[in-house]
Amino acid sequence: MTNTIRQSASADQVLNAPPATVFPLLCPVREAEWVPGWTVRMIHSASGLAEPGAVFATASSTTRPDGGAEEEVWIISRHEAPRIVAFVKTLPGAYIARYEITLAPEGDGHTRATWFQEITALSPQGAALLTDAWPAAFRATVGHLETLLNAFLARAD
Q1: What is the DSSP string of 81-137?
Q2: Is 1 within a domain?
Q3: Average pLDDT, stretch 127-136?
Q4: Higher confidence at residue 96 or residue 156?
Q5: Are the C-beta atoms of residues 146 and 8 closer than 8 Å to each other?
Q6: Predicted local distance difference test score (pLDDT) of residue 33
Q7: Considering 47, 105, 153, 157, which has the largest number of Cβ atoms within 10 A of its Cβ?
């Protein structure tokens, strides 16, 4: 029995390129190429890019009492090109999450990307972030990322 809140959500994308083209873009460093304003602080990576065991940090959408952005810390737990990339991320003291993106060929050079996230609250602060609206917000974010990634892929052709 547990006494904390856990939520999960998933959403699909159809991307206008094959998995072998999409997969390298699902890298914390390369996301800056297609996500406006994306910033990452690479903490550890032998190659400087996505790989098993790479650790990086990103700004969270939550803010500290002083108004600054909280920092999420991520570790890549699986990296199997061109099929799956998985992460564990935490906002220390608030939540921990499993995050997985699975790619599959989708006819005529396209990719079906399935994004899954499961978040477990670690504190009342984390529980407050996991409202009933969280799954819909996750799906909206994945939809927005689909638009950005397809626009990038169109420019790259």
Answers
A1: TTTEEEEEEEETTTEEEEEEEEEEE-STT-EEEEEEEEEEESSHHHHHH--TTHHHH
A2: no
A3: 90
A4: 96
A5: no
A6: 96
A7: 153
- Number of structural domains in the chain: 1
- CA dist 83 and 61 (Å) reads 28
Residue range of the domain that includes 137: 6-156
Polymer length of the chain: 157
- Residues 131, 134: Cα–Cα separation, whole Å: 5
Is residue 70 packed enough to be buried (19+ CB in 10 Å), middle (13-18) or exposed (0-12)?
A: middle
Which range (58-67, 99-108, 145-154) has the least confidence? 58-67
Q: What is the pLDDT of residue 65?
A: 56
Dihedral (C-alpha) 101, 102, 106, 110: value to the nearest 10 degrees?
A: 40
Q: How many other CB atoms sit within 10 Å of the CB of residue 126?
A: 21
- What's the rounded Cα separation, in Å, for the pair 56 and 72? 8
